[in-house]
Amino acid sequence: MSGLRRSQESECRRMQQQPLTDRVALVAGGAKNLGGLISRTLAQCGARVVVHYNSDSTRADAERTLADIGSTGGQAVAVQGDLTRVADVVRVFAEARHRFGGLDIAVNTVGKVLKKPILDITEEEYDSMAAINAKSAFFFIREAGRTLNDHGRICTIVTSLLAGYTGYYATYAGGKAPVEHYTRAASKEFAARGISVTAVGPGPMDTPFFYGQETPEAVAFHKSQALHGRLTDIADIAALVRFLVTEGGWITGQTLFANGGYTTR
């Protein structure tokens, strides 16, 4: 085999292993759990990653994620912001673009769960759920559309409850529901610049985010509804997001339910 052929094959393998080389990704809620794994996964694929975290309570998690990325030779920085404040959303995107000279990928994992009967939900709880799950997602997509380079990728984490029919999650699934339309609308409006816009709806995930809302009996039921009798693993979702922001760019305007058959439509 000629030296040129070996060099070409080596470069091909490198690009397969690191398809995001020279790309910059912002991961909202990227400090821990699913967001942390997505941050590390995109860095392993060659991206330079901006890890967003909400407040001082997650600063240490963000720093651990930066350390993990740095230990494998990746590049990452952390940016703080309360994404329910539009001024913070604008600032986070501006800082992300400034840190690495551009921005190609924006992934939003921010969300809040509340399992509670409608009759017991207060105005304050409703306002908080709407702000975190819907308002922040809308302005995240808006700023991504304003900020991303051409041929960029936008992906928002929603929930498989959008394809379900159940009680007690009115403000959670209800707050995520508008994101489906934001995704469709943005996919049309940003299409001329080659930007794909998607949403991913995980099933109940094996994280502290889930267990705080559920009884052991409810956990057992949720497990029984999916393949292999288990909850969705964050690795299942990180792999799908990685695909969507790399070779899956022809998929746009879609909500993908990744839940082992927990629910579908």
Major beta sheet, specifics? 7 strands, parallel
Q: Share of helix among residues?
A: 40-55%
Low-pLDDT segments: none
How much beta, percentage-wise? 5-15%
In the CATH hierarchy, what is the class? Answer: Alpha Beta
Question: What name goes with the CATH superfamily?
Answer: NAD(P)-binding Rossmann-like Domain
Number of domains: 1
Descriptive overview:
With 265 residues, the protein is an alpha/beta fold. The chain has a single domain (24-257), classed as 3-Layer(aba) Sandwich (Rossmann fold), CATH 3.40.50.720. The chain has helices spanning 3-17, 33-44, 59-71, 86-100, 123-147, 170-189, 208-211, 216-224, 234-244; strands at 24-28, 48-53, 76-80, 105-108, 153-157, 196-202, 255-258. A 7-stranded parallel sheet has the order 3-2-1-4-5-6-7, with helices on both faces. Helix 4 (86-100) packs parallel to helix 5 (123-147) and helix 5 (123-147) runs parallel beside helix 6. It is globular and about 50 Å long.
Please give the structural blueprint.
Layout: H1 3-17, E1 24-28, H2 33-44, E2 48-53, H3 59-71, E3 76-80, H4 86-100, E4 105-108, H5 123-147, E5 153-157, H6 170-189, E6 196-202, H7 208-211, H8 216-224, H9 234-244, E7 255-258
Parallel strand pairs: 1-2, 1-4, 2-3, 4-5, 5-6, 6-7
Helix pairs in contact: 2-3, 2-9, 4-5, 5-6
